Amino acid sequence: MNRKGTLIVILALVFFNAFPVRGEDDLFFAKIWEKALPKLEKSLEIFDRSKDLPESSFLREDKQSNRKKYEELLDSIFTILIGSELNNVRQEYNFLQIKMEQAGDEIELLLKERITAPEKSWNPFEKTRGRIDEKIASLREDIKTLTARKEELRAAITRSLAGLGVDAEDSKLDILLSSVSGDDILHLMLAADSIKKINLQIVKLIEEGQGTVQAARKYTGIHMVLTDLYLQANLNALERIGREYIPRLEEIIKTARRLWAEAREMLGATGQDDRNRKILEANAAANERTVRTADLYRTYLRGQENALRKTSEKLKKDYFVAKNTYDTVKTGTDLISLIQVSMASLEGVFGFVMPDLSLAYDQELMKEFERITDQIRKGK
Predict the structure, then answer these.
(1) Residue 95's pLDDT is what?
(2) What angle do CA 82, 84, 90 make, to 5 degrees?
(3) Is 351 helix (H, G, I), strand (E, B) or coil?
């Protein structure tokens, strides 16, 4: 078979996803490659079209509308890139957490209803204390079952993170799973891993096929698109922390400090034997704990924000180099060198995913951490 025929065979193997599968992780990547490659090629086509479009136009496509199509494609590719067993496990973990919270809320409501419920009733639909007790017992069994499943999922998450090179000991895993930014960071990790695998597959393709000018240029363009995609994902996560999570956290801190000050002021005017004193002392302590935990939380988010900013700056440089390479370089060997250089930036997220927050490992502070996370998510 001649060189051209060999290259066609190799391209067919890659485009139709016919490379060796070595386990579950390879199966997920096979699906990612199959789904992502056509969209990456389409993104590159849209990117190339931009240079011939006017800045703005009422009657036909312009650079602005073209950019919107390009960004929408990047979003859809990102969704594909984070598809993995780890992401599925994380989604199930979140679902179980919601179910447990709902069961806990229902138990709390039933306990209140039990206070005024009759011991017996001729009405089969009326809630008696016995029926309420049965329902509470059933809900508690549900919580036990859900908790056991969550522990299984935690172990699976730990194994998956270890496969990505992240040492997630129990306390740090708690922070990752409970943090409002945890899913953002997890998605960046999964996207980085998928992009790395795609780049390595491209390198393998070029090395085995020895490359052609046309193929090398296309894959240089795909690498450029992937770099741009990962840059935008980092910038989006950075923006959410700076414009959404931290401002909401600041509001929680402000409110807690105000309530603490009010409680302290009322305590100053309350006698030692006043029945409200214990309540006010508990309120003051609770708000003090909220402020302390929220301050730690803010430090945690600021650390992630700074790390994301540094990674984004590196990725911006990588993107401009990749774009310049796409416009000027036509050889496969230069693409391989470019990919090798950019790997460090792609893997940068793994270095800050588990910042130290040891002061929040206290059980009570962790409960407060989770409560604050829920408030931030709900925007309250």
Answers:
(1) 93
(2) 90
(3) helix
Task: Output the CA torsion 10→11→13→14 (10° steps).
Answer: 120
Q: Write out pLDDT tens, residues 119-152.
A: 888 888 888 999 999 999 999 999 999 999 999 9
CB 210 within 8 A of CB 3: yes
Q: Are 173 and 370 in contact (CB under 8 A)?
A: no
What sign has the CA pseudo-torsion 338, 317, 238, 294? Answer: positive
Taking each helix axis from N to C end, the angle separating 363-378 and 170-178, rounded to the nearest 10 degrees, works out to: 20
Cα separation, 356 vs 352, in Å, equals 9
Q: Tell me whether residue 19 is exposed, middle or buried, using C-beta atoms within 10 angstroms of its C-beta: 0 to 12, 13 to 18, 19 or more.
A: middle
Residue tagged 């993995």 (tokens)? 84
Give CA–CA dist 150/279, Å, rounded: 35
Q: Which two tokens stand for residue 20?
A: 């060796």
Q: Are 172 and 161 in contact (CB under 8 A)?
A: no
Reported as a single tens digit per residue, the pLDDT across 312-336 is 998 998 899 888 878 776 555 566 6
How would you class 192 by CB atoms within 10 Å of its CB: exposed for 0-12, middle for 13-18, buried for 19 or more?
buried
pLDDT tens sequence across 4-20: 333 322 222 233 233 33
Distance, CA of 261 to CA of 258 (rounded, Å): 5
Output phi, psi for 64, to 5 deg. -65, -50
Q: Dihedral sign, CA of 233, 319, 310, 82?
A: positive
144: phi then psi, degrees, rounded to nearest 5: -60, -45
Q: In the prediction, which pLDDT does 309 show?
A: 92
> pTM here?
0.78
188 contacts 78 by C-beta, under 8 angstroms: no
Contact 153, 96 (CB under 8 A): yes
pLDDT tens per residue across span 173-214: 888 888 888 889 889 988 988 888 888 888 777 676 645 667
Please give the Cα distance from 145 to 1 (Å, whole number). 60
DSSP letter, residue 16: T
Short-list 181, 148, 313, CA closest to 248: 181
